[in-house]
Each structure stands twice: as structure tokens, then as C-alpha cells.
Amino acid sequence: QKEVEQNSGPLSVPEGAIASLNCTYSDRGSQSFFWYRQYSGKSPELIMSIYSNGDKEDGRFTAQLNKASQYVSLLIRDSQPSDSATYLCAVNTGPGSQGNLIFGKGTKLSVKP
Amino acid sequence: DGGITQSPKYLFRKEGQNVTLSCEQNLNHDAMYWYRQDPGQGLRLIYYSQIVNDFQKGDIAEGYSVSREKKESFPLTVTSAQKNPTAFYLCASSQQGAWPQHFGDGTRLSIL
User: Fold this and answer.
1) Beta bridge partners of residue A5, listed in sequence order
2) How confident is the model at residue A96 (pLDDT cuts 50, 70, 90)?
3) Is B100's CB within 8 Å of A49's CB?
4) Which pLDDT value is given to residue A21?
5) pLDDT, tens only, A62-88
6) Percent of chain B with pLDDT over 90
7) Closest by alpha carbon to B71, among B22, B29, B105?
8) Distance, CA of A108 to CA of A68 (rounded, Å)
């Protein structure tokens, strides 16, 4: 059974701090990794995609991928109260670029003013 | 604007009734998906389709049915066999199987 694991949280950080969200996956053949943000009562919104080992930055968001450790993370710099949401990690089921996505259960982030 | 439209936003089902949730996309995506989300839970895949006139069961297909007669449309029917249908239903589409998926706004289904 292919799995994606995330800490459910809640993760609470003060405004302006760095929030670090983590995700591990079981399928070593996975090639595509995504982070979604879901506000309460709303649908998930894609915020980051990463396909290669290393870091990928987009504004205040940085995605980090380590395929050897089967680990993907999302850093949010200068966290704002508007970042308070549940963050879902999604990983393709493989092989290669084929297959569907498996979603983790999400980490709830709370940014305190 | 390109996007995914789900309707209705809220739906109520009576005992023994089948109901159909609509999902339309104008992104020219080949693949479409239906997920169910229960409170505090992740997304569970119900059905998916990677090409017109073909679809596959996901992890929780029992009590649901779908069709894919057009590339743009992937309706989901919640049948009376689904005994616990109350949930948030999300439709998504993507260019191919493992590419990023984009979601509609969802339909909330409740039992009367």
C-alpha cells in the first residue's frame, strides 16, 4: 500500500516566523510532488510542484525534496495569519511520471498575530 | 477563464434516492477525478478517468458510479447503496495522470 504521511498538527507559529511542514512517502519510484493549501470549507489550491532533488523557491514558499530519504518539505517564510490553513502533500503513485496522486491527510497550520 | 465548475454547491439526498453531482472543465485536460473528503480527513479517490469513455475505480468506489462521455464532463452519481454519503465531494482534472491536479469548488452532500 503506497502511503503519504504528514503530521496532522496543528502546527502553531507566530507571525513572521518560518513554518516548516514535512511529508514522507513510501513509493521510491515517485517522481512528482505537490503541495496544496486548503482553507477551511474550501477546495485545495496548488501552491508548489517539485520534481528534482533540492530546493525550489516561489516567493515566500520553498519546497525541498530528498528522494534518497523519501522526504519532501514546505517552508513558509515570514508567515502571515492568512497562511493559516491545512497543507496537503501529494505524491504521484508511479512508475515514473505515470499513475495518480496520493494525498496525505494534511497538516493544519495556525499563524498567530 | 479556464477552470473546473462543480454544481450544485450544496445537495441534500433523501433515503433511497440517487443523486448526481456535476463536474465540467474547460482546461482541455485529459484526466478527471472524483474525491471524497470527510471532516479532518484527507482526500479519498472514488473514481478517475484518463480518457473519454474509460474510467477506473479508486479506493472507495462502492456506492458510486460515473460516466465520461465527453472530455469536458465527468458526472458522479451517489447511489442509494452508499449508506454514508454525507461528505465534501471534490472534482479535479489534470493534463495527465501524475501532473498537478486542479480542483473545483466542491459539492457538500448531506442526508435529509
Assistant:
1) A24
2) low
3) yes
4) 97
5) 999 999 999 999 999 999 999 999 999
6) 80
7) B29
8) 26
Q: Chain A contact for B38, CB < 8 A?
A: no
Question: What would the grid cell of residue B2 be?
Answer: 479556464
What is the residue whose three cell numbers read 450544485? B8
- DSSP 3-state of A89: strand
The answer to whether the Cβ–Cβ distance between A98 and B102 falls below 8 Å is: no
Contacts of B43 (CB under 8 A, 6+ apart): A44, A88, A103, B35, B36, B37, B90
CB B87 within 8 A of CB B60: no
- Taking an 8 Å cut-off on Cβ atoms, the answer to whether B105 and A92 are in contact is no
Is the peptide bond prior to B85 cis by the omega test (within 30 degrees of 0)?
no
Instruction: Give B-chain residues touching A51 at CB under 8 angstroms.
Output: none
Please say if the pLDDT value at position A50 is more than 60.
Answer: yes
Which candidate from B42, B96, B103 shows the least CB-CB separation from A43?
B103
Query: Residues B80, B55: contact at Cβ < 8 Å?
Result: no
Dihedral of alpha carbons B109, B76, B6, A49, sign = positive
Go through chain B and tell me how many residues it has: 112
Which residues of chain A make contact with B102, given a CB cutoff of 8 A?
A: 46
Across the A/B interface, how many CB contacts are shorter than 8 Å?
51
